[in-house]
Amino acid sequence: MNRNFNEWLNKFKSSISNYTYYVDFEKIYKSAEKYKVELNILNSLIGSKDIEKEFENIIIKYPETLEVIPLLLAVRSNEIFVKDNMDEYLFTFNKLVYSIGDYVKFMRETGLFELLQNHIINNLYDYVLGVEVGLDSNGRKNRGGHLMEDLVESYIIKAGYKKNIDYFKEMYLSDIEKRWNLDLSAMSGNNISTKRFDFVIKTENQVYVIETNFYASGGSKLNETARSYKMLAEESKKVNGVTFIWCTDGQGWMSARKNLEETFNELETIYNIDDLDNGVLSNLEW
């Protein structure tokens, strides 16, 4: 089948984001709820007239409240490094490693005491929900990858394949070899690679190994991705009964179109979402 690369590329989509892509609220509520008691204890510092003394008393009586301090600074760690003039500190918040006075200074110098004492916020639980929303935006990249996987899986199911019967998720190359008694050393660098495929479809006479990704924005990684999949396409041709399929899409490829075109010319089974819409997975060789 002769395909025109430019026509194919022009059908790439700008986004596949669904409603839950932007913020995972279920995860956020769970994270905030985990520290609800400690946050409510620290709420007593809001508007305090003697915040440093009251903070000391809280840490002595409820040392577990120390664990939420990094989260108030949008840090997911129980350690925070600070350089103070000629001195260096590695504050830990699962236990006291310095004097309480040092932790008081930490609260003062980072601005947390000002945040609490001057009523800039009214409730730490609500504040942490906001912090969690900000931190969760970092997870969009992973969710974007899963969105493409979920989308491709929906087309696999639509094509009539059944999970764990004739299609499988996240299979390592070594597991594919064992399950169907194949020699995939040509695709694994003589068993050096620990390659894992997003999906594997098994028909009567063929094993289809599938990779999926979606790139909404460009970057140097895309050139390397295209080159590596071109190499994988070449290697897969050396193995009888195995076909490599790459499902990719996204406007990010516009910045790496040259490398993608090289892979397109080498790999007949490179598909975009438009191809999937047109039922390409329903026409696989059995």
List keywords for this structure.
Trna Endonuclease, Chain: A, domain 1; 5-stranded mixed beta sheet; 2 domains; alpha/beta; two-stranded antiparallel ribbon; 286 residues
Describe the protein in words.
The chain has 286 residues and is of the alpha/beta class. The chain is 44% helix and 15% strand. The chain is built from 13 helices and seven strands. It has helices at residues 5-9, 25-34, 36-42, 51-61, 69-72, 100-109, 112-117, 124-136, 140-158, 173-180, 220-236, 257-266, 273-277, and strands spanning 79-84, 87-92, 167-172, 196-202, 207-214, 242-249, 270-271. Helix 12 links the parallel strand 6 and strand 7 (270-271). Helix 4 (51-61) packs across helix 6 (100-109). The protein starts with a helix and ends in a 9-residue tail after the last helix.
